[in-house]
Amino acid sequence: MDVIKKLGYTPNAAARNLSRSKTDTIGVVFHQMSSGFFAQVMAGIDKAARENRYHILCAFTHLEAEPGKTCTSMFDEMRIDGMIILDPALNKPLLNDLKSYRKPIVLIQCDSHDRDISSINVQNRRGAHAAVAHLLNLGYKDLLVVRGPAGAQDAQLRLEGCEQALKEKGPGVTCRYIDGHYDPQDAVEAFRKYRAKHGLPRALFALNDAMALAILKDLRTDGVKVPEQVAIVGFDGVDSADYVGLTTIETPMTALGEGAVRLFLKRLEAPDQPAEHIQLETRLVVRNTCGG
Predict the structure, then answer these.
(1) Which of 105, 101, 56, 51 is nearest to 82 (CA)?
(2) Which of 22, 101, 257, 286 has its Cβ near the most Cβ atoms within 10 Å?
(3) pLDDT tens digit sequence for 238-280
(4) How would you label 230-256 residue by residue, b for 16+ Cβ within 10 Å and e otherwise?
(5) CB of 289 within 8 A of CB of 216?
(6) What architecture does CATH give domain 3-123+252-280?
(7) 124-250+285-290 adopts what CATH topology?
(8) Looking at beta carbons, which pairs linking 238-243 to residues 24 or more positions away fall under 8 Å?
(9) Does the pTM of the predicted model rise above 0.90?
């Protein structure tokens, strides 16, 4: 996907010359960097920033009790011209605090519906709908969905997509849910508890690839045949999904990062213009783990 064309922005250095007080640095705050998804989004941010002669200053909030401190301290110390954030712990009070600094803010995988804060996301609901519809169309009637973290907007949208596909299919399908929090270890532990109580599901949809890959490894270690005994689908399209033949919903991760920088620069050049809220397309990539 041509992200530059999608956003209607041509890279230039104009934004860098608006003020002598500018740092030519974008703050990038992520919740974590534990999977290929985050690394590929970061690669996109880095690429677009370098093309526009910007530096990036990275911080992570996964070990903090108060994630907002990371964001506000970067602004308080005047080290950045604005911020790109990918963190499911974001909340309205924190965003209001950040808006008070009157610098560009761009959210990834979270839409604040705010006229002053731009966002870029993938089609989470549509992608999850495609994953579950594919499993149902293959005839699987005993499904298990591994959810993401409660409160994360992208996880909620993916769950809504699952539920819509099930509703459209109608009765005759059993679907249960476990919580994996987007974390491989949590997902495996929850899956083992589920399996001990209910046995193997016929098909499983994990709301990100990291959880799907961890459960796939656990099943194969136990000698369970995939997809003959359990069909598996993930969500993200990380490189390792291709290596092991995981069917997944592929997302334009690098384009998310590049697009976030384009939105940031547009806000820097025209801060009085309404924020933009972009959705990038997803696609179902069928490989070996779901059969069919």
Answers:
(1) 105
(2) 257
(3) 999 999 999 999 999 999 999 999 999 999 999 989 999 999 9
(4) bbbbbbbbbeebeebebbbbbbbbbbb
(5) yes
(6) 3-Layer(aba) Sandwich (3.40)
(7) Rossmann fold (3.40.50)
(8) 238/35, 238/36, 238/37, 238/40, 238/209, 238/210, 239/36, 239/40, 240/36, 240/209, 240/213, 241/209, 241/212, 241/213, 241/285, 241/287, 242/287
(9) no
